[in-house]
Amino acid sequence: MAEEKVNDTNLIYLRGIIEYMTQQNAIDFALDEFPEFKTVYQTYQGILTAIHQKDATEFKNLITNYQVAGNQMDVTILTFVKNGSAVLNNPYSNGPIEGLNRKIKVLKRSCLGFRNIHNFFIRISLIHE
């Protein structure tokens, strides 16, 4: 979740902690309890902000100044180093394909099966048009 979308006013009940607190309080609690998570969280938030704002210099700054910590974030940063320019300059979206996949899954659920696969493909082609 982006840092600017974190709710810091409404209390919610957190079952794992067994008390009411805001989302910001829960994040602060986790960051204080696990210092190694704090660096990963701050790096993640910085990368997320740079990608959303399409700030190439900040993005390159974050991935070049990253200190290897021996966790899963290292793999992500190495992937960004290899494909960094494609991350910010990609004009394509997988949204239309995901929408079509959702429609096909809804079709499968609502029809409860087809007598043969050919009829199923015909229905998919009708959805796609």
Describe the structure.
The protein is mainly α and 129 residues long. It has helices at 23-33, 35-52, 56-64, 72-89, 95-111, 117-128, and strands at 12-14, 19-21. The protein has a two-stranded antiparallel ribbon. It is extended and about 60 Å long.
List the keywords.
129 residues; mainly alpha
What is the CA-atom radius of gyration, in angstroms? Answer: 22 Å
- The SSE order reads EEHHHHHH
- The structural class is mainly alpha
Q: Per the principal axes of the C-alpha atoms, what is the gross shape?
A: extended
Poorly predicted runs of 5 or more residues? none
Content of β-strand: under 5%
Give a quick precis of the structure:
With 129 residues, this protein is mainly α.
SSE layout and pairing:
Elements: E1 12-14, E2 19-21, H1 23-33, H2 35-52, H3 56-64, H4 72-89, H5 95-111, H6 117-128
Antiparallel strand pairs: 1-2
Helix pairs in contact: 1-2, 2-3, 3-4, 5-6
